[in-house]
Design a protein that fits this description.
The structure holds 4 protein chains of 4 kinds. Chain C is mainly alpha-helical. Chain C contains 20 helices and 2 strands. Helix content of chain C is 78%, strand content 2%. By secondary structure, chain D is an all-alpha fold. Chain D has 4 helices and no strands. Classes of the chains: A mainly alpha, B mainly alpha, C mainly alpha, D mainly alpha.
């Protein structure tokens, strides 16, 4: 078990190093083109982390959304706006303070968390085994994630579909219905 | 990008497999990773690639925005409609058990139908959003890139 | 057929507006989608009234989504408290919709109106979904439906004033950070309990006992909701969002969105965490009490110096949220009743006042107080509605505002906190000043030359006057609201099973 | 040396929560400190993705596999519920991003800038009709 844990730790720490480097680069670079590309890289790296954590569905989605659609939309926005960030002029004291306090609170909260990967954490003992046991009996769908997503917690997924629909309505309300306009959509219709 | 013939040929070769893959992900989500959401995104990406190479107008000729907007709503209606049907059949909202003769099959049917609803909504929403972004007159000209 | 509808009423409460939204988007033209959305809002209100009647009688109603028993599936759980909030939300929606037609026609271009009404329905769906659910993660999903549509609705004020765009953007950033904090908090709770159902969470948290993870879970949920409800000093998004959004949107979200956030806070504090939880109690007393009092004064003071009527009302909203949090900070039954009663009272009052502001915007083209000089003669009914609403905001007897303040003062005196009681009265004086500024401009100053202002159309005046009427009706006879609030407080306290100070 | 061994175990059991906290705070920092509206959104995405990692890592069981039934009764599956929650959260994330970017496009169109400092200056001008001391807007 411990060797297993160490192995995972090494892969994790490697991926994590990449993630941190990417995040810091995103923070410092002012060429937004590069920033968007690195954000895509960040998503891909996190997708591989999800694979090592057994979350294949999530990894798939993160890769498709974070590195795919989200990057396309970001690039589309850059094409319509600017590609260079201005040098920040204001003080960084308050943001640093906010992040330090929030980070410290989070670290404090992790201290009583059950150890990573342990099979006897409360999270694995209550509802989750019920899903794993009941999925083949109730639904006959081998992918438990699909069964939980579409059936046991299907209502959440309806909400999720509604969120996506909301995004479409919101974008259409803001940018128009996608029929090419001759003038500027500045709002003086 | 009117003159890039390599891009045009390669994308023509790529787009059909991407669509095929999207369909695979859609229908195979019960067995492996994937499902309506992922399939919808992949499907949308195929058409976005098409639009990037051949132009948004060309894409809008195949998929008019009005159709996409309607489809986005229809996906939600398919999902919620499944719930309404189960209610009419005497179960709770989204209780798929009553959709077939035995509960297990009912669940399978229910899952397939709602995943289809998710897939339709996600694909058409992603494409509508892309079109809405792309159809905004760019203040920067193409040559400046 | 009828019994199918009756047994599925909890699901229908949310599903009806949810299904209506895509249909509304497909209807196309503005008038048709408006008529449809109005019909749906009436239907939703009817459902929530029947749910309230059912929940008022006794036991909470539980509805299992998909037929899966909780905690496997998602549960809807309706007791007096959320039935009450559901009724507020859908009732305000049913009044704002008729009001919206003329106001929206003047502020949103015709070809976007269908999308506008769809977003409105989605916002209603989200708020109802947050209120009705008994599942912690489901709260997040529906919170995001309502938030995303609200951002878009706020931004659609850009056709009148382009600053609506940046207001919506700032709201989006702060709201999303808040939602993410909320998700972190839920994650921590889930981590130590293994469940997401609220009732189940409560049982397992009690078994689990105090831990650092639980504490931080509480803190992150508290801050996350605090951002959504514009708790001072996390309110920075609110003034701009309220003042630049289209008038119909402002009256709707000012009357409902923050109320729903207060409800979520109550639900998590009492039902999920339980009240004997010492860390929570000390947080309330040491953090919430000063925050609430500062909000009451600082926001009211800022309101006095605003020139824009909507902006002034927005700052007053922050102060009023302070009152609600104050009632919560007392940790007594009376304090809780004050919070819940004020939830209703402020929704009615502020809904009416923002509607009046929208009437001014439609007729005078502006809501700047200095350009509303002499408007009392041109628009007597609208201005009179403002005066009545303003009196309720101040808390004069025979208005609902008085009922809220009465309970707040009583709660503070019960604890012997008489300085707090004095502070409540002091902050009411500030309200007198900012309401008076408008009254003075409207009645005592001469109208500017050559300005023609017509009385607002009936479709806008009637909803505003209905709300004003409600604020007077329930100010004279508060038995329904206070009984409901008292029972809701009982359920909250009962669910957290604690020893009270009384 | 039992104490040190214990600490190592503790660290091994918690290090990845700490990693995610660092990533989260980087994201949050980019969101609150940068003035460029697009970069703020990128920061928000980093923040959210790191929260997703925290969720997924709590569902992991050492020696477990992805929660897709294999038919072998001895298989240990990792917890599927966090995966489901995060799938939903990812969708909410992209919806928020799309809306935020649409807002940025409109802001850039109407105000001609996507820098917070410039926007604040302009709004100051709109409020008071004078330029804020210390530099003109574009």
């Amino acid at each position: 078990m411990s060797a297993d844990l160490l192995g995972i730790a090494i892969i994790d720490i490697l991926l994590f190093t990449f993630l941190v480097v990417t995040a810091i680069a995103i923070m410092h670079l002012r060429n937004l083109f590069a920033v968007v590309m690195l954000a895509g890289v960040f998503s891909l790296l996190s997708a591989s982390l999800f694979v090592t954590l057994d979350a294949v569905d999530v990894a798939f989605t993160e890769a498709a959304v974070g590195a795919g659609i989200s990057t396309v939309l970001m690039l589309g926005t850059l094409a319509l706006t600017v590609r260079e960030e201005k040098k920040p002029a204001h003080s960084v004291f308050l943001p640093v303070l906010v992040c330090l306090v929030a980070g410290a609170a989070l670290i404090y909260g992790t201290l009583d968390m059950p150890a990573f990967g342990s099979a006897d954490a409360p999270i694995h003992l209550h509802v989750a085994p019920a899903y794993i046991e009941r999925t083949p009996i109730d639904t006959g769908v081998p992918n438990i994630v699909t069964a939980v997503l579409a059936s046991y917690r299907g209502y959440d997924t309806l909400g999720e579909t509604a969120v996506i629909f909301t995004a479409a309505i919101a974008v259409l309300l803001l940018l128009g219905a996608g029929i090419r306009q001759s003038g500027k959509d500045g709002g003086k219709e | 990008m009117k003159h890039h013939s390599i891009l045009r040929v390669v994308s023509k070769l790529l787009i059909p497999p991407i669509i095929l893959y999207a369909l695979y992900v859609q229908w195979h989500g019960d067995y492996g990773p994937g499902g309506g959401f992922q399939a919808g995104v992949v499907f949308a990406v195929a058409f976005i690639l098409y639009a990037l190479v051949y132009g948004v107008d060309e894409m809008m000729r195949i998929l008019p925005p009005r159709l996409l907007h309607a489809l986005a709503g229809i996906g939600v209606l398919i999902y919620a409609g499944t719930g309404v049907v189960t209610m009419l059949l005497g179960e709770n909202f989204l209780g798929y058990n009553v959709l077939a003769h035995d509960p297990k099959h009912g669940q399978e049917w229910g899952i397939i139908v709602v995943e289809l609803g998710v897939g339709i909504t996600v694909a058409s929403v992603m494409m509508s959003i892309f079109i809405a972004f792309a159809c905004h007159n760019p203040p920067i000209k193409d040559e400046e890139w | 057929m009828l019994d199918i509808i009756v047994t599925n009423l909890p699901a229908l409460q949310v599903v009806v507006p949810l299904v209506a939204a895509p249909v509304c988007a497909m209807l196309g033209r503005g008038d048709r989608s408006w008529a449809f959305a109005t019909l749906v809002s009436f239907l939703t209100f009817a459902i929530s009234v029947s749910l309230f009647v059912a929940a008022y009688g006794g036991e909470p109603i539980s509805y299992e989504m998909g037929g899966w028993a909780p905690p496997i599936g998602i549960e809807y759980r309706i007791d007096v408290l959320n039935a009450f909030v559901l009724m507020i939300v859908s009732g305000i929606a049913a009044l704002v919709m008729p009001y919206a037609r003329r106001s929206v026609a003047s502020e949103i271009p015709a070809e976007r109106q269908a999308f506008f009404y769809t977003a409105f329905l989605l916002c209603l769906t989200g708020l109802l979904g947050v209120t009705i659910t008994g599942d912690a993660f489901n709260v997040f999903v529906f919170l995001e439906i309502s938030s995303l549509s609200t951002y878009a609705l706020v931004a659609s004020g850009a056709w009148r004033n382009k600053r609506a765009l940046t207001a919506a953007y700032n709201y989006l950033i702060m709201g999303t950070v808040g939602a993410t904090f909320f998700v972190i908090g839920i994650g921590m709770l889930y981590m130590i309990t293994g469940t997401l159902n609220m009732a189940d969470l409560a049982v397992r948290i009690a078994e689990h006992g105090d831990s650092r993870t639980l504490r931080m879970g509480f803190v992150f949920i508290f801050i996350g909701i605090g951002l959504k409800l514009a708790m001072f000093p996390l309110h920075l998004w609110l003034p701009n969002a309220y003042s630049f959004a289209p008038s119909a949107v402002t009256s709707f979200i000012a009357a409902t969105a923050t109320k729903v956030a207060v409800y979520v806070l109550l639900r998590f504090m009492f039902t999920v965490f339980g009240f004997d939880y010492a860390f929570q109690a000390s947080t309330l007393e040491n953090v919430l009490l000063p925050v609430a009092i500062v909000a009451m004064f600082a926001a009211s003071l800022v309101a006095i110096f605003q020139d824009d009527l909507k902006r002034m009302l927005a700052y007053s909203s922050i102060a009023q949220i302070g009152y609600m949090l104050l009632g919560l900070a007392f940790l007594t039954h009376t304090g809780l009743v004050a919070t819940i009663v004020h939830l209703f009272n402020h929704a009615v009052t502020k809904g009416a006042l923002f509607m009046v502001a929208g009437c001014f915007v439609l007729s005078a083209g502006t809501s700047s107080i200095s350009s509303l000089r002499g408007v009392g003669r041109d628009m007597p009914w609208t201005t009179a509605a403002f005066v009545a609403g303003g009196l309720s905001l101040i808390g004069l007897p025979l208005t609902v505002g008085f009922i809220s303040k009465w309970y707040l003062v009583q709660a503070s005196l019960e604890l012997g906190w008489w300085p707090v009681a004095l502070l409540i009265m002091g902050s009411s004086l500030l309200a007198v000043i900012y309401v008076w500024r408008v009254v003075e401009a409207a009645y005592l100053q001469p109208a500017p030359e050559g300005v023609i202002r017509r009385e607002a159309p009936l479709s806008m005046l009637v909803p505003a006057w209905i709300l004003v009427g409600l604020s007077i009706w329930f100010g004279i006879d508060a038995s329904l609201t206070t009984t409901a609030a008292s029972r809701a407080a009982d359920t909250l306290i009962g669910s957290s099973q604690i020893l009270w100070q009384e | 040396m039992p104490d040190i061994v214990l600490d190592l175990d503790f660290a091994l059991g918690h290090y990845n929560y700490w990693m995610f906290v660092i990533l989260m705070m980087t994201g949050l920092y980019v969101t609150v400190s940068r003035g460029n509206l697009i970069k703020k959104i990128v920061g928000l995405n980093l923040f959210q993705t790191s929260v997703f990692m925290l969720y997924i890592s709590m569902g992991k069981i050492i020696g477990g596999t992805a929660p897709i039934l294999t038919g072998d009764p001895d298989t240990v599956y990792s917890n599927p519920l966090p995966h489901v929650l995060i799938l939903t959260a990812i969708v909410v994330g992209i919806a928020t991003t799309a809306l935020a970017l649409a807002l940025v496009i409109r802001i850039s169109e109407t105000l001609g800038t996507v820098e917070e400092d410039d926007i604040l200056k302009m709004e100051h001008e709109m409020d008071f009709g004078v330029r804020k001391p210390g530099g003109g807007s574009r």
